[in-house]
Design goal:
The protein is an alpha/beta fold and 379 residues long. The chain folds into 3 domains: 2-46, no CATH class; 61-91, no CATH class; 105-323, Nucleotidyltransferase, domain 5 (2-Layer Sandwich), CATH 3.30.420.10. 32% of the residues lie in helices and 18% in strands. A 6-stranded mixed β-sheet has the order 11-10-9-8-12-14, sandwiched between helices. Strands 2-1-3 form a 3-stranded antiparallel β-sheet, with no helix packed on it. A 3-stranded antiparallel β-sheet has the order 4-5-6, with no helix packed on it. Strand 9 (172-182) and strand 10 form a beta hairpin. This is Exonuclease domain-containing protein.
Length: 379
Amino acid sequence: MQLNISNAPGTIPATNVEFLTPVVVGKTSRTLDSLAAHFESSLHISTPQNLAVQESPRSLRIPTSVIFGGERATCGTTPGKRVTIRSKVQSFDPQPAHKKTVIPQELHNEVFIALMAFCHSRYILHIYHTNIVKDANILMHYALPTPPRFPYLPERAAIAINCDVVDKHYSESEILHISAIDYLTGEVIIDALVQPVQPMAGWHTNQDWLSKQAKAATTITGRILKGWPEARAEIWRNIGPNTVLVGHNLHRDLTALRMEHWRVVDSAILVSEAVGYSVKRRWSLKALCNQLLNMKVQNNKGGGDSCIENAFAVREVVLWWSRHPTEVLEWATHQQKEWHKGVRQAYNQRRTNERRIDERKTNVTNSDVWVWPTGYEGL
């Protein structure tokens, strides 16, 4: 087939370009249109009038099966020979569908103002050890505050983050997975594995999500962040000093990221302030989702917790908390009563056990007391 290509302004001169194709399927004009659209060429293509088009001896059959399982993809082709393609990309099990509240665009400003009302003061953050670096030489790197944003770069108003952190001892912690979503839109911003800076031998972790796939993923190249410095850089690309960070027990995540941030909404601190400081119980994210939202999370038996699932869960908890102040007060009052009731029951049980021990000591019979034999009383 021979095409006459006329020169267009700003293009390379070309004439009489030949395409060696034995068979052209479909109509000539439609085929040329699709060819031009595919390459998005600025060249003007003209068709000779005497171009002969041959019909395909066999109708084209669209592939009907594309199966992605693990690292293999099987495609149905024509003729009936099956072609197996093996991908070199590390594959992971798909994440389950997450519950996500959709906030209309016109309500974003109202939701953000409500979220700002729950930002903790610096005094509260100091009490709960958030943004406090007790050991300044954590891995010989200082914790840095969030840098200011450039004027031409967009800044997220609020994001919810969650990190899977492992500890060796107090001054050393590493991130294995980091997830961040937009608090207002629910858009997934970051969901990546993190290759630890230090070897994992000797680290204390009881988390089941550190599976064989995750261990293998920390040694391959791809969409994997190199240690906490790249994880922190990814966070800083999307936030500024005025961005609100939402999370659960954020002090642990910020310590692992070696960063300081002062606009924080921590669901664990919200619960502690609501129930009162006299209540010593600390609620996990799983317990909050179960009691407040009637939503089950972290139910992957043997597969561990999902980092992105926890990020969505903490977003739902804070959204519910900001929109239901009456229910929050009722729940907090009920938890206070249950806590003090349990404390009184434990105190009464302890006093009962002490009285029983005292009674056993006073009701000892004479046969149980050893007496000196006769003649030895004066010794």
